[in-house]
Specification:
The protein is of the alpha/beta class and 283 residues long. The protein folds into 2 domains: 2-173, 3-Layer(aba) Sandwich (Rossmann fold), CATH 3.40.50.620; 186-275, Pantoate--beta-alanine Ligase, Chain: A,domain 2 (2-Layer Sandwich). It has helices spanning 7-19, 35-47, 65-70, 75-82, 95-98, 117-120, 124-139, 151-164, 193-198, 200-213, 218-230; strands at residues 2-4, 24-29, 50-55, 88-91, 143-147, 169-173, 235-244, 260-268, 271-280.
Length: 283
């Protein structure tokens, strides 16, 4: 594994790879890597000759300064994890490298970015688009890999690629969960032991709602999830939306779409967690 910290170094490494006809995969991360990230890297390693893993906590996608300050960082541990996974270039730039001057670009992905995360975290997806597009331009990957836990982000990245006319494949990868069901997240390490146990109610509720939905209306299913979450001490629900998996717009009836996903965001103590569950999906 090689570690580089500048775009010029990165491009130099990749130039040599492309001269040999090698394919390039990209896994964008904000570090604090866990087994969920490793699954993305392993998928990329299996499908490409070389994989770039970016490790960069992007300031422009945080609308909460404390969230940015407290976001976990451990580059040494990240590189130790990556070192065992294959032919990898770790790209770990400083903020000044990615933003030598302010990025004033404004993206619009309406209506994808006007609901859920977009409604509660103004400016978040514009920041995501800024950094991911910078990474795409720097790496010029054949494929880029994103986890489905950030379901809305994945849809918006696909739309950004379409808008910018970029020639790469976006690969969505299934949520990786702990053995007890909790969706893996870098933020999990910020939970207290008590909060970590409490957080299990998120995945339990979503899983139970799939069974509940078999004999109940969509409206009743949404109420089922909201009432369970609101009844859990230490939780503060931001939203639970049942949406079309392509448009991300709310649906009213199970027959409204062949692809229906429930997306949730809540605070467990002071830590914001997200998850999602699929109710219907065309195979």
């Amino acid at each position: 594994m090689k570690i580089v910290s500048t775009v010029s170094e990165l491009r130099g490494e990749l130039r040599e790879c492309r001269e040999k006809g090698m394919t390039v995969g990209l896994v964008p991360t904000m570090g604090a890597l866990h087994r969920g990230h490793a699954s993305l890297v392993e998928r990329s390693v299996s499908e490409n000759d070389v994989t770039v893993v970016s490790i960069f906590v992007n300031p422009t996608q945080f609308n909460d300064k404390n969230d940015l300050k407290n976001y976990p960082r451990d580059l040494e541990a990240d590189c130790a994890l990556l070192g065992a996974l294959g032919n990898i270039i770790a790209f770990a730039p400083e903020v000044e490298e990615m933003y030598p001057e302010p990025d004033t670009r404004v993206f619009s992905f309406a209506p994808l970015d006007t609901v859920m995360e977009g409604a509660f975290r103004p400016g978040h997806f514009n920041g995501v688009a800024q950094i991911v597009s910078k990474l795409f331009y720097a790496v010029e990957p054949d494929r880029a890999y994103f986890g489905e836990k950030d379901f809305q982000q994945l849809a918006i990245i696909r739309e950004m690629v379409r808008q910018l006319g970029l020639k790469l494949k976006i690969v969505g990868c299934p949520i990786v969960r702990e053995e007890d069901g909790l969706a893996m997240s870098s933020r999990n390490m910020l939970l207290t032991d008590e909060e970590r146990v409490r957080a299990l109610e998120i995945s339990r509720t979503l899983a139970d709602s799939v069974t509940f939905a078999e004999n109940n209306t969509l409206k009743a299913t949404k109420a089922f999830v909201e009432s369970r979450i609101n009844a859990t001490e230490g939780f503060r629900l931001e939203y639970y939306q049942i949406v079309d998996g392509d448009t991300l717009q709310p649906v009213e009836e199970w027959g409204d779409s062949d692809y229906i996903v429930g997306c949730i965001a809540l605070f467990c103590g002071k830590i914001r967690l997200i998850d999602n569950i699929k109710y219907k999906e065309v195979k």
